[in-house]
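Sequence in, structure out.
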Amino acid sequence: MNKYKKITFLKQYKNTLLMVGLILVISCAPTVNYIGKNYNPTENIDVFLDTNDVKKNYEVIGKVDGISGILGSSYQDIQDKIVQKAKEKGADAVILYNMEQRIIGSTSSSNTEHRQWMKNTTTSSSNVTEDVLHADFIKYIP
């Protein structure tokens, strides 16, 4: 392929390559599913791991599931995304609980080897999982 054809190829498929790259980046990022009330955004969020640690009166304003991306995200990445969403929704604090790994699919393969008087089959399977972190968004009651 000469130099002119390479440049033409890149120009022709530039948008497609950019789109594929964007999809890969987005699929790696954790997502947050929120249901609840919305308030004015807040700047500082307290993070708790147990309801007994919250020393102020509060009400739960929403529930959230933070889910790892297709290619996986750490629980810290998921927590950061949850805190970011809490600020957007106007929460004063987040109570994190129940880390889990959900099975979202499975893969399997089989290989059969035939020899003169013998047949040997090897089978392997694995689960495709996603990490999930659950949380409550809370608002302090004065």
